[in-house]
Amino acid sequence: MNLPNSITMSRIAMIPLLLWILSPHFAWLGSNGEQEIAASVLFVLASITDGLDGYLARKRKQITTIGMLLDPIADKVMVTAALIALVAYNPEVVKVWIAVVIIGREFLVSGLRSIASSEGFTIEASDLGKLKTVIQIVSVVSAILAHHWNEWQFGVIVIPLKWIAITAIYFTVLVSVISAIDYFVGFWKKIDHASKDRRKAFVLSRRKSASAP
Hints:
- Helices cover about 75% and strands about 5% of the residues.
- By secondary structure, the protein is mostly helical.
- A hairpin with a 2-residue loop joins strand 1 and strand 2 (about 155-160).
- The termini are far apart.
């Protein structure tokens, strides 16, 4: 197994560890925010590996079929696991319907890409999709930290963690919905164009067959 695939596998291995840290069984670590810090650091590390494995695969020319299969699965499972855990861990910030919308968007885009691949074309990641990923990381990390702290105060500087978490999670929902629509429009244009090309090819073949002696 090459290095990029190993990094992808390490991200998959982090998922059950993240769920364990966010469970009541990890409360023995302490009551001063150690549990939240540990979960946040782990999620940030997992998010870094998300971009690192793809970068290394392209740079080292080690793009493999198993890597193309595992990478999106790892991404979707990581996001799904984190949001479901947060519904129970910090329901004041992450509501059930919020998790449903964000997770539903992930599966919708995966489905569109799968259909596009079967039709012979690809749907590139849009800038909205990349923005959603960044905001999603901020929202998950801030929601985890907001479970213990409403705010951080450093002298005269106050960081309102709870309000950052709430703002980020709702912004994630907004960008998720908009980017899903953007993906669907891009998919529809390409699938419609591909259908027209097939109809033209069919008509031309019929005309050639009719004109043949």
